[in-house]
Amino acid sequence: MKKTFLILSLLFSVALLQAQTQKNLKLTTANHKLFDYGQTATLTTTDSAVNVIDSIIIADDEAGIIEVQTVGFNDSLGLAVTGSKIMRYVKTAGTLTLGSATNTLASSTDAGLGTATWSVAASDDNIIVTVKGKLNYEVLWRANTRKIFQKP
């Protein structure tokens, strides 16, 4: 009898919790977007020069988070450069400041691609994503960039 009462009490509590949770999770999606900004950029390199693969203009008096995922691939040798970074930024009085990057996926370069790499930096009013390949190796690059921001 005690077990039956306990089970019924537990089921009733779970039902009440579900009803309350569903009530609180109503979301109006009008005027909402999944991301404020998102794009994919591609570039092919055949040398070790630094190239801008993506540039995101940041408005004055804006703060946000920028996330970049990058892949570089040499298909003839099956070698890759991969990684993902996320960081905060703030632009006030014309000065754009980036916070320290957190590697959400540590950047990794296969040994055969040597010093091929990628990075994110502030440049004037832009956040830029740069890539650097390897001399005499074709590297196909893709950078997915998104930002979530707030401004007055």
Task: Tell me what you see in this structure.
The chain has one domain (37-150): Immunoglobulin-like (Sandwich). The chain has one helix at 2-24; strands spanning 37-45, 50-57, 62-74, 79-92, 95-98, 102-109, 117-123, 126-132, 139-150. The model is unreliable at 19-35 (pLDDT under 50). The N and C termini lie far apart (62 Å). The chain has 1 helix and 9 strands. The strands form 2 sheets. Strands 1, 3, 4, 5, 6 and 9 form a 6-stranded antiparallel β-sheet that branches. By secondary structure, the chain is of the alpha+beta class.
Helicity, as a percent range = 10-25%
What is the number of helices? 1
Order of helices and strands: HEEEEEEEEE
CATH class: Mainly Beta
How would you classify the helix and strand content by structural class?
Answer: alpha+beta
Please state the CA-atom Rg, rounded to the nearest Å.
Answer: 23 Å
Uncertain segments are 19-35
On the 0 to 100 scale, the average pLDDT is 84
CATH topology: Immunoglobulin-like
